[in-house]
Design a protein that fits this description.
heterodimer, A: Rossmann fold, 2 domains, 5-stranded parallel beta sheet, globular, B: alpha/beta, Urease, subunit C, domain 1, TIM Barrel, 8-stranded mixed beta sheet, about 25% strand
Chain lengths: ~325, ~425
C-alpha cells in the first residue's frame, strides 16, 4: 500500500479539481482511497511518538459542525485536528442560531465568512454535506449524513482490516444488522466492493436493502452468513428504530442476529470482530465477544485518528495545488 | 376596449367540433364569433376589407404555419393564495398560466386557510376577478381542514363556485370518509380528485424506492404506496358510483389498475403531469431539490407505461400540478425541502415532445389539455365553438427555446428542466379579451 512521495504528489496533482471534499466513498475513486490509507499509516507512526503533534495544518481553521449527537467521531476528529495543529472551532447546535431557525445554508455561509478552511459536518439529512460542498469554498468532510454515508468510518475500518489481515482482496466480510439505516454499512459496501472483497449483508429483510449494482450477497440466516467469514462487522441496532416495526423485540433480534461466542465459531478461527460503536451489549453483540481477543473494536478507535489526519492533510494539499 | 380580432390561416384544432385544419377565427367582444375552415368560405380580400371598415379596431393576426387551439385547461394547479403569497399569488400564478398557454386553471385547496368553506372560495374568485389574467375554478377540500376526519361543506362550496373536491397533498387515509365523499358528491355531479398515497406505506419517504434511493441514502416510498390507494379508490368508485378522478398518476401499476377499471366500466378518469413522462428518479441525483416532487419521479419503466397510458386513453388529461415554492425553501437539505415543480410555463412544450416521440398526435394532445379536463370538471371551456369564451392559444410548434426559470412569470422558479432546449411553445394567448404575447 505504501507509495513513494513523488508518486503520491503526482496522483494528487492530477486530481486537483476532483477532490475538494470528502463527501462520500462513492464519490471517491479507488486511488483516492488507497492514497488516504497509505497516508494514514504514516500518521499512525506519528501517533506512536512521544510528541504526537505535527505542524501540518498550522494557521488553518477547522469547524466541527455536529447537528447530531456524537461522542467518538467528534472526539476523534477533534484529536486529529489538534494533532495536525489546526485551530478548532466546535459548533454546538443547541447553543447556536440553528435553534432560532437559521437555515443550513445561512449557517455555513456565515461560518465560511469567518475564513474557515475545513468544515467537518454531521447531519441527520442525507446529502447535507453535498449541499454544503456545493455552496462553500472550504473543504467539506462528511462525518456522517442521515442514512447515506460515513466515509471516514469505512476508511478506518479498511485500515484496521488491512493492518490485521494484510489486504482487503478476497476476504469474506460479513456485515450484520440494520444495514438500511446504517451509513457505516453503506460506506463499507462502497469501499470494500472496490477492493474485491466478498461482502455478505446479514439481517432481517426489513433492515437489509438489496444494494443492486454492488457485488453483495444478502442473507437472513446468520449462521449461514458467518460461515468462513474473515471479518464480522456488527452494526448498532438503533434503539430509536424499535417500535417502528422493523423487528418485534430486541430479545428476538438477539436470538437471530446477535453475535455471541457460539455463533462466532461459524466464522474463521482468526476472524476479526468489528463494531463502529456505540455498542448495545446483549442486543447485537455479547460482552464476551466484544471483549475477546478477536475484537478489533478498540483498534478501530485508535486508527480513526490517523485516518482522519490523513484525510485532512490530503485535502489541504489539494487546496494548495488548486 | 372590446374589439374584433381575426386570426388568419392558422391550423385550428378543436376536439369539441372535430376541427383539424387550416382556417380563420373571428373574435368579437371577448367571444368566438365564427370559425371558418379553409375552402368552406375563406375570407376573400374584399371580405377582410369589409371587416376592417366595419371595425375600426380590427386586429388581424396572421397565424400561418402556427397552431390555433382552444386555451389550455389545467385541472391541477396550486396558486398558493391565500396564505402562501411568498410562493405564488393568484396574480402571478394566472400570469404564469397565460404565458404557458393556459386560460383556465383549477386551483387546489391546500392554502392557508384551507379552501374548505365558501368564504375562502369566494375570496379566491373575488381576487381572480380583480387580478387574474385567466379564469380560475377553485377545487374545494373534501374534509374540513384537509384533516381527513369529517366532510367539508361541499354543497355550500359548490354553490360558491367550486368545481371539484380534493384533499390534494393530504391523502384521505380513512376509507370510510372516501366512500362518503364519493357518495355525497353525487348530489352535485362533481368529481372527487384523489391524491393516491398510503401514508403508512410511504412512511415519510422523500423519493421513489429503488436503486437511486439506496444510492443516495434517502428515505424512500414505494410505487405500491400510490397503487394501493389507486386500487382502493377504484373499488370505492365501483361501490358508490361516484365520479373518481386520480391525480398525478406516476407508476406503471397505477396505469394498469386504471386501464382495467375503465375496461370494466367504472367511472374513473385520470391525469398525469409532464414530469412523469419526461424524467426519471435519476434527476434526483446530486440531491437536486428541484426534482423533489410528490408523487416522486419514478423509473424508466414507469415513464414508458405513462406514455402508453396516454396513448391508449387510459390517462385522460395532462395536468401541470404546478407547485411553486420560494427559492429559499428549495435551497436546503433534500429531505427538508418541500415537494413540487413549477409547471405552468413548461407543460405545453414538454408535452409537445410526445408528438416528436410518436406517443400522441397533436389532436390527442390538444384533447388532453383542453376538452378532457374541461369535461371532467364540468367547465364550458376547451372549445372554439361560436358563442363560447374567446380563450385561444396560438402555438408555434417549431420555435426553439431554452427553459430559464428566471424568466418565469411564476414566483416559483423550481424546475428540474432548467436549461432544457425544447421545440415548440405558445406564442400568443388570448384570454378575457386580452392578448398575451
Amino acid at each position: 500500500m505504501k507509495r513513494t512521495a513523488g508518486k503520491t504528489a503526482y496522483i494528487w496533482y492530477c486530481r486537483v479539481k476532483m477532490l475538494k471534499d470528502l463527501v462520500g466513498i462513492k464519490e471517491s475513486s479507488k486511488e483516492d482511497i488507497e492514497l488516504i490509507l497509505s497516508t494514514a499509516s504514516s500518521f499512525k507512526d506519528v501517533l506512536k511518538r512521544d510528541i504526537k503533534k505535527v505542524p501540518t495544518l498550522r494557521g488553518k481553521t477547522t469547524v466541527n459542525l455536529f447537528f447530531e449527537p456524537s461522542t467518538r467521531t467528534k472526539t476523534s476528529f477533534e484529536l486529529a485536528e489538534k494533532r495536525l495543529s489546526t485551530d478548532v472551532l466546535n459548533f454546538s447546535v443547541p447553543t447556536s442560531s440553528v435553534v432560532k431557525g437559521e437555515s443550513l445554508y445561512d449557517t455555513v455561509k456565515t461560518i465560511e465568512a469567518y475564513g474557515v478552511d475545513f468544515i467537518v459536518i454531521r447531519h441527520s439529512s442525507s446529502g447535507a454535506p453535498h449541499f454544503i460542498a456545493r455552496n462553500v469554498n472550504a473543504s467539506v468532510i462528511n462525518a456522517g449524513d442521515g442514512i447515506n454515508e460515513h466515509p471516514t468510518q469505512a476508511l478506518l475500518d479498511a485500515f484496521t482490516i488491512i493492518e490485521k489481515k494484510g489486504s482487503l482482496q478476497g476476504l469474506t466480510i460479513a456485515i450484520v444488522g440494520d444495514v438500511f439505516h446504517s451509513r457505516v454499512a453503506k460506506s463499507n459496501v462502497y469501499l470494500l466492493s472496490r477492493f474485491d472483497a466478498r461482502i455478505r449483508l446479514i439481517g432481517p429483510p426489513t433492515l437489509v436493502p438489496e444494494m443492486k449494482g454492488y457485488n453483495v450477497e444478502v442473507l437472513s440466516d446468520m449462521d449461514e452468513g458467518l460461515k468462513d467469514a474473515d471479518v464480522v462487522m456488527m452494526l448498532r441496532i438503533q434503539m430509536e428504530r424499535q417500535g417502528r416495526g422493523f423487528f418485534p423485540t430486541t430479545q428476538e433480534y438477539f436470538r437471530y442476529w446477535g453475535l455471541d461466542m457460539k455463533r462466532l465459531k461459524r466464522a474463521k478461527k482468526d476472524a476479526l470482530v468489528m463494531h463502529p460503536g456505540p455498542m448495545n451489549r446483549g442486543i447485537e453483540i455479547s460482552s464476551e465477544v466484544a471483549d475477546s481477543s478477536q475484537s478489533a473494536i478498540l483498534d478501530q478507535v485508535t486508527n480513526g485518528i490517523a485516518v482522519r489526519m490523513a484525510v485532512m492533510y490530503l485535502l489541504s494539499r489539494e487546496g494548495e495545488n488548486g | 376596449m372590446d374589439n374584433t380580432i381575426l386570426i388568419k390561416n392558422g391550423h385550428i384544432i378543436d376536439a369539441s367540433q372535430g376541427l383539424d385544419g387550416v382556417g380563420d377565427i373571428l373574435i368579437k367582444d371577448g367571444k368566438i364569433k365564427s370559425v371558418k375552415r379553409e375552402g368552406s368560405g375563406v375570407r376573400s380580400q374584399e371580405k377582410e376589407q369589409k371587416l376592417k371598415t366595419q371595425n375600426a379596431k380590427l386586429r388581424i393576426i396572421d397565424a400561418t404555419g402556427l397552431y390555433v387551439l382552444p386555451g389550455l385547461v389545467d385541472m391541477h394547479t396550486h396558486l398558493r393564495e391565500p396564505g402562501f403569497e411568498g410562493k405564488e399569488t393568484i396574480s402571478s400564478g394566472t400570469m404564469a398560466a397565460v404565458r404557458g398557454g393556459f386560460t383556465s386553471v383549477c386551483c387546489m385547496p391546500n392554502t392557508d386557510p384551507v379552501n374548505d368553506n365558501e368564504t375562502v372560495t369566494e375570496f379566491i374568485l373575488r381576487k381572480t376577478y380583480a387580478e387574474g389574467a385567466c379564469y380560475v375554478f377553485p377545487i374545494g377540500a373534501i374534509s374540513k381542514g384537509q384533516k381527513g376526519e369529517e366532510l367539508a361543506e361541499m354543497g355550500m362550496m359548490y354553490e360558491a363556485g367550486c368545481v371539484a373536491f380534493s384533499d390534494d397533498g393530504h391523502p384521505v387515509m380513512n376509507s370510510l370518509l372516501m366512500r362518503r365523499a364519493l357518495e355525497y358528491s353525487k348530489v352535485f355531479h362533481v368529481p372527487i380528485i384523489s391524491h393516491c398515497e398510503d401514508l403508512n406505506l410511504s412512511d415519510g419517504g422523500v423519493m421513489n424506492e429503488g436503486t437511486v434511493s439506496t444510492f443516495l441514502g434517502l428515505s424512500r416510498m414505494p410505487a405500491a404506496a400510490e397503487e394501493v390507494m389507486v386500487a382502493r379508490d377504484i373499488i370505492l368508485a365501483e361501490l358508490t358510483g361516484g365520479r373518481l378522478h386520480i391525480a398525478h398518476v406516476s407508476t406503471e401499476g397505477s396505469v394498469r389498475l386504471i386501464r382495467q377499471a375503465k375496461e370494466r366500466g367504472i367511472r374513473v378518469t385520470a391525469e398525469t403531469c409532464p414530469h412523469y413522462f419526461s424524467i426519471t428518479e435519476e434527476a434526483v441525483k446530486e440531491y437536486n431539490t428541484n426534482a423533489k416532487v410528490n408523487p416522486p419521479l419514478r423509473t424508466e419503466r414507469d415513464v414508458e407505461a405513462i406514455k402508453e397510458g396516454l396513448g391508449d386513453g387510459t390517462l385522460d388529461v395532462i395536468a401541470t400540478d404546478h407547485a411553486p415554492h420560494h427559492r429559499d425553501e428549495k435551497l436546503r437539505e433534500f429531505d427538508k425541502a418541500p415537494s413540487g415543480i413549477s409547471g405552468l410555463e413548461t407543460a405545453l412544450s414538454l408535452s409537445l415532445r410526445l408528438l416528436h416521440d410518436g406517443v400522441l398526435t397533436m389532436r390527442q394532445l390538444v384533447e388532453k389539455m383542453t376538452l378532457n379536463p374541461a369535461r371532467i370538471m364540468g367547465l364550458r371551456r376547451g372549445t372554439l365553438k361560436a358563442g363560447s369564451e374567446a380563450d385561444v392559444v396560438i402555438v408555434d410548434a417549431k420555435r426553439e427555446w431554452k427553459i430559464d426559470p428566471e424568466r418565469f412569470a411564476s414566483k416559483g422558479k423550481n424546475t428540474p428542466f432548467h436549461g432544457w432546449a425544447l421545440k415548440g411553445m405558445p406564442v400568443m394567448t388570448i384570454c378575457k379579451g386580452k392578448l398575451y404575447e
